[in-house]
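As a warm-up, study this chain.
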Amino acid sequence: MTNRGSEHVRASGGRRTAARLVLSLLVLGAVYTGLATVVGRHVAANTRVDGVSIGGMSPRRASGTLTRALAAKASRPVTLRTPSRSVRLDPATAGLGLDVDATVAGQTGFSLAPADVWRHLTGGEDLPLRISVDDARLTAALERAATTVNTPVREGSVSLAGGTVHTVLSQPGHTLEVARTARAVAAAWPRRPEIGAVVGGVEPTLANAEIRRAVAAFARPAVSGPLTVKVGSLPIVLTPAKFASAVGLRPTPQGRLVPTVDGARIVALLRAAAPGVEKRPADATVTLSGGRPRVVPAVVGTRYDVAKVQAAVLPALTSPGRTATVAPLRTQPTVTTAMARSWGVTDVVSSFSTAFPVNPPRTTNITIAARTLDGTLVKPGETFSLNGVLGQRTGAKGYQKAPVINGGRLETDYGGGVSQVSTTLFNAAFFAGVRIEQHTPHSFYISRYPEGREATVSWPDVDNRWTNDSGKAILIHAFVSGNEVTVTFYGTKVWDVEAVKGPRRNVVQPRTITDDSPGCVMQSPTVGFDVTVSRIFRKDGRQVRTSQFSTHYIPEDDVRCTG
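Now compare it with the structure written out below.
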């Protein structure tokens, strides 16, 4: 009995010991878990970010501490250094900001791992400061900065202005590489207030070695002395100061300097130095000499060929003799002597004269018009226009104011009396047998003109037009002698033309008008009537055809000016 009791006591003591051990372990586990929970809610001791201690702080407190401590550093301008200059960036404008929440993230959290608990208790580490970058704003800021720091390439050049060689050497440029610089800024900010920008070099197309070669090979020899241009047997000497403006070196896309000569400029210098070398060609024509038609022969002209002058001058600039030889081109006239002779202007085809009363302004107008008309050549098939030859009659051309018909009444205007020349011309055309295209009789009959064979003219619509269908040219000779104007056609006579006038019809008596207005022009009464004129064409005595012209005249009223 005693032994069983002792064993029972020992067993109970063992159970109590085990229970106490389990309880101790449970207490220790609870304490450890609590400790792990507490330390897991704080940043590890001795943790620093960019020199700012945040150990033992909650994430919220740590973020606030970092924001306050690094605010000044985050707001200071960033200086970008480039080979040409430095430029400042405002971090906020450039899209740069601190991301303290991301920096602290992951530094807290529950863990039962002894190593994690020990690290939180004994000490952390230096954490990297995380930042936020707005790529679009940073790129925009750097592109703006590039406009101030980029250095353009300066291409060299060679000039021969004034006959002296002027050389400018090439210089490389620099360009801010925005993408690479953006990465450099994002990696260094905000730790470093100055950041080296990534700058790429841009080489000029024209190398300085090529500039020096072109100067030695062409530029200096080109202006080393006068240039002689032999035009036929005539030597023309041009000094470097004169011809240098036409000579140069042109850069090519391949980086070469190619000698050039402005042929047109050289030709201008040659013309100035020797004006008589070039001559315009002169067309053959027909004129009157001693009252007879005479063919004036054509003249062959000469001119410089710009391309040939350029081709000759370029090699001469670097040749030992410095002489370019050019031959002027012969330029042919449009109308040759043979063509003018074929026109057949040999004899009088027709001629007509009309007399005019004494009226000095009117006589002046007739004289100017006849002088302008004289010498006109109408080629075969061409249509003549009197308005086209005379143009508008103005005071600037010397025309004076004289009586003209307007609405059945006389008034004064520039060119009054030119219709006398038109009527005389019309009759010359009538008897030459050419085709009448347009003619307008006066509104009332004027006794000094043939009935039904007269033509007024007025700028710009009332014209005197006819076509030369004779097969040969017609030379018009017009002149005033005394109180008479004459128009003669010279050419080859084709037709014998006869005019036959019919009787007056539908005769109407004039009225009597009394006018006291200041501009009144007196008129003598003339009856109105209709009349027909036939034009009969004969060749070798045989009638070939006829044509008719019917004219209606209104009465010329008896106007009495009382003013």
